[in-house]
């Protein structure tokens, strides 16, 4: 398998653990559709919420949008 280029957040332990969780959930092949969906959503969320991946969305202020 060709190794993908690494981005800075790929070196973090937290991202690696979250990625391992996602791979484990996928490998588990949960048969119950609702539980499978919930497990995959949670694992994906963990990957997206690892520190450098968190993106702050602009907030609506009385004067308009601000970061």
Task: List the topology elements.
Elements: H1 13-28, H2 33-48, E1 59-61, E2 64-66
Antiparallel strand pairs: 1-2
Helix pairs in contact: 1-2
Q: Can you give a write-up of this model?
A:
- With 67 residues, the chain is mainly alpha-helical.
- It has one domain (8-66).
- It is built from 2 helices and 2 strands, in the order H-H-E-E.
- It has helices at 13-28, 33-48; strands at residues 59-61, 64-66.
- The longest helix has 16 residues, at 13-28.
- The relative contact order is 0.16.
Features:
67 residues, mainly alpha, two-stranded antiparallel ribbon, single chain, 2 helices
What would a concise description of this structure say?
By secondary structure, the chain is mainly alpha-helical. The chain contains 2 helices and 2 strands.
In what order do the strands lie side by side in the largest sheet? 1-2
Number of strands: 2
| Portion in strands | 5-15%
Low-confidence stretches: none
| Tally of contiguous helical segments | 2
Q: Report the span from N to C terminus.
A: 40 Å
Radius of gyration: 16 Å
Overall morphology: elongated
Number of domains: 1
User: Main beta sheet: strand number and arrangement?
Assistant: 2 strands, antiparallel
- Helix fraction, binned, reads 40-55%
- What structural category arises from helix and sheet content? mainly alpha
